[in-house]
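Lecture notes, structural biology module. Today: joint structure prediction for complexes of three components.
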Amino acid sequence: MAEPLLEIKNLNVDYGLGDEAVHAVSDVTLTLHRGEVLGLAGESGSGKSTLAYGLTRLLPPPGVVAGGEVIYHDPERGPYDVLSLTNSELREFRWAETSIVFQGAMNSLNPVHRVGTQLTDVIKAHDPKGSPHARVARARELLTLVGIPADRMDSYPHQLSGGMRQRVMIGMALALEPRVVIMDEPTTALDVVMQRQILGELVQLRERLGFSVLFITHDLSLLVEFSDRIAIMYGGRIVEEAPAKEIYTNSFHPYSAGLLGSFPALRGPKRELTGIPGSPPDLRAMPTGCAFHPRCPKSFEPCAQDLPVLGVPDAPGGSDRTVACWLHPVR
Amino acid sequence: MSYLLRRIVFYIFTAWAAITINFFIPRLIPGDPVQALIAKEQGQLSTDAVHSLYVLFGLDKQQPLWQQYIDYLGQLTHGDLGLSFTFFPTPVSEVISSSLPWTLALVGVTTVVSFMVGTGMGVLAGWRRGSWVDLVLPVTTFLSSVPYFWFGLIMIELLAGPNSFFPSSGGYDPGVTPGFDIGFIASAVQHSLLPALTILISSMSGWILSMRNMMVTVSSEDYITVAHAKGLSDRRVMLSYAARNALLPNVSGFALSLGLIVGGTLLVEIVFSYPGVGFQLFQAVGAKDYPLMQGIFLIITLSVLAANFIADLAYLVLDPRTRKEG
Amino acid sequence: MAISTVDLQAAAGAPAPSPKPAKRQKFRFISNGKTMTGLIILGFYVLLAIFGPMLAPYDPDARGSDLIAAPSSAHWFGTTHLGQDIFSQVLAGARGVVYVGLLAGLVATALAVIIGVSSGYLANTGGEALSALSNVFLVIPALPLIIIVASILPSVSNTTIGLVIGLTSWAWGARVLRAQTLSLRGRDYVDAARATGESTWRIIFFELLPNLTAIIASSFVGTVIFAVLSEITLAFIGVSDPTDWNWGTILFWAQSQQALAQGAWWWFVPAGLAIAVLGTALSLLNFGIDEIVNPRLRSSGRIKGKSVRMRIGFTPVLGKDNR
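The predicted structure, tokenised, for the full assembly:
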């Protein structure tokens, strides 16, 4: 298996402090390997975006990282904990090693600056001594890379269509050739045709440039096609993590099965759609034991009492995956 | 530039409206003020002067209203605002032109400086929340609610006096003759310090508060998070991303509040007996000098329109979305 | 005078964030420190307005023998050049000020709501015309206009002044309301209401107005501030009736009797302070409304135990000092 690149260990992220803290991400342990696409799926409010922003300390107030480590395995400098970096070290780290493609590009670009400026300013911030000429050339290169005519450098964001803006965000994320690109619902705001197009382009870019991807979405069907491994989040915890194919053909956690059943895949035989009854838990008032048990069709006695811990299940072919469910006891 | 055209049309329309309001106001005055004046001057008025006054006041009952209006507009295009009652027979336009530069200098400079400094401080106050900065807020809230003219009185009480550097009234030393020489200019500047300080302190607080609140609002926008994610320096995010966007509504707000600012500065002039348009308006009201009052109102309105237009131009430059065609 | 963020955003055309459901809002309104302080001070002034003249130790017009006397136990705020008790004048003046302020505020806000919401809701030339009308009134400087109109009128009672101010200062609120109505008009629930055939009248009343309450409140408060200041100004210049006591009149007499030259600071300080404190209370109220609509504006509160500094762009990590 490929080497780990980004190791998240027991990450806890809260909103608020003390007794009023809402635990948005609890005890998340996840590893992104070199050259891998790791999908992160879950309903709204499951904590997946919180996790992504918490990794590089980008959560707005009142977000707080309450514990855990995020170990980045830098091939040149060795492993270090991103959360322990000083603010100025973090600024150097950001975008150069790990970048983010944000969702809803409407508001993600500064409305009063030209697109070109927003591409060059990040290059300048990380390499102040570079020549302006080189920066502009690189910006044009990035636009071409994502399929936008280079003369759009001087356009303002409001002059671009939604699809073009998303492409600019992708190009911007690749500006410093990061090793990890986190994509937070990159295609949700677009129509289906554009969605497929951009995903296809992302695949090509990844093959060319070789970065690892943490792909966050609520649309599990996209992940099944696009990612190598998939992790599923519920109520702030990872409930299952396995190679994409395993999740699709042989998921262990009932929630994964429920998610798969909720989406039609764009290809393959027609299936009857089921849903998951009930609604996601209120993070301020979580159920006892397993957070999913009130909605789970397979819940039984221990589910309401004890919280199942994520671990490698004691099952055939279960060595390359983890799950947190009493149906599949841990080894 | 459809935006620009629309604004120009709007200003022309408003100017016309102001002129028309000006036209109708004296026709609401009971009695015949012109006759009173003629009686006072005992027949020393030329027929032309009398006629222009009648046109101004519309007391020439033989003419139909629309004809009076045409005559009035005609008079205006010649810059004839009538003759002042108190400074008779000096034309109003001359009286105003002697005081207008003083007001423009005082108001113009202090307004622009207070907006820029206040906005700058607001940027800092809005960026760094917590700690000493938040203590500034109650003070500035209080200062921004203080009426300018009362603050002027306090300043005079505290800072001016027989032996102090700051003169308590006037535009320049009584002994100095007006002219473009160092002596006069120095005296003028010295006399303008206290009024300017008064306006600066009270109006700056307002801008600090407005900008601080806009900075806080803008800070929660997505593009600020993106800017931080890109690892840009704190200064760049604060200025190029946050302040640049927070500035836009404040520039609009500035343009809109020009009318209010004018009101406040007029009062400061009154308190300091500063020889500007405000002080003149005050005297005109006291003396019931209607032509002068009208003339000043018109000039003030037109100046505010012009200032608004300049602010609109600034907005056009600052916000690329307004340059959108169609 | 500081402009509230709600006004700024609406005037710039950006949709102001819509306030949360009204029920939960009431309690938040009260628990906000700024609004509480503002309301308390305001309540105090209203009480003063109602009971002031009764509480005054002397008749404000009554002349006495102590001329221009400094504050003493007999005269808490000192006396005027006619021996009148300034404390009584301040108390008596509260009534006039509060009355005119409220009257002007009501008139102006009513006009602003009618004109602003109509011009925002009507898509046709009617709306454009109303908008042009309010822009005209907005740009024409209010104070000189008020001065001229007031000096022409034969009688200048408090009511007339209140009406004049109200009739000339509605434009700001109208513009803000128009911008907000325009943005609300495009929202789904309005379309839904239209589709089910609700009459225009009902739509405006039951769908739009509840969402505009924050802005209407903010506009009302802003107008009251402006009305109070204008009224004081008119009195100070001598346009309104000098026998009708309000704080501006006190300052008028102080100025005309050269209180400064005589060192009689007690003559003009209390009246001005009264105005300033009232203005501050109203501004606090406005900022409180701002914070309710936009919760992020709240100054960082202290969270019990350690003080963790929240900072945009750099989430704090408990147990680590990343500085």
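Point to remember: The interface with chain B takes residues 53, 56, 58, 60, 90-96, 99-100, 102, 104, 107-113, 121-122, 125-126, 156, 158-159, 172 of chain A (CB under 8 Å).
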